[in-house]
TrEMBL record:
Protein name in UniProt: Type II secretion protein F
Membrane disposition: Multi-pass membrane protein
Annotated compartments: Cell membrane
Keyword Cell membrane on entry: yes
Domain Type II secretion system protein GspF: from-to ranges: 152-280
Cellular component terms (Gene Ontology): plasma membrane
Main location: membrane
Amino acid sequence: MLLPVIFGGVLGAGWLVLDQTRGQTYRHLRKLDMEGLRLKKLHGPFLFLLDKFEVGRRLPVLMFRMQHAIQKMYGIQHSGEKTMLYCAEMLTYSWLMLLVGCLLSLVGDIGLGGMVGGLALGVALPFALYKDLNTKVQRRDQDILMELPELLNRIVLLVGAGETVQRAIIHCVASQGERDHPLYNELRKTVGNWNNGYSFQQSFEQFSRRCGVQEVTIFTTTVLLNFRRGGGDFVLALRDLSHVLWEKRKAVSRAKGEQASSKLVFPMVLIFFSIVVMIGAPAFMMMNM
């Protein structure tokens, strides 16, 4: 029982020392707006450790992927700092799980099993957080891809009726009100850039970069190449792109349907075996009688 005491004491004392000596340097990062972080007050020592061991240089591929995902979810601004905060959140959960494991080893009758369980959770939770981030990004990309053909159809109709591309996009955004959708959230930022003096080309390129979806990049490239021409050529180019995007939307819908049906297989198997047991148990009981 001495090992959990020593290990837990080292974890707790080490965090206190680092928080008092180095944690103050990173207090300004707590002001960054980033949803999903619940343990910001505990991040200081882990941010110091991430800087000290130069995790970004030692694990460049992992950090690049994480930063790219965070840029999609939380914006390009301060994406490097937000990536460090997310890594610190992972380490904080691992530290807490190790402390909980040490406490369980002390108060329960499980011995070192508590420490082993805490270590297992401390390793598994960061992977779970990383996977959750990637799942959110995939869901966001799918939402954008599913809504993009609808937006393009509205733009084609409005441009065909005599509106400019810029006015058509503004009208599409206004018609959605305050709807919380990643595509329209990025378009609202684009409209705000127009109102602040950015050119149409600059704003649309930034819109494509923020979305980070290949189909949006094709859409913005088509618009930027053809919007100066106007007339029938522009509308025809948008209609051809709309047909391609609708096909991709159908493919995404089919993939979602297949995923949903595969998830139902296991519950259906459980229900089947439950019914078999319910029907077969009385028959076996009668045979034994």
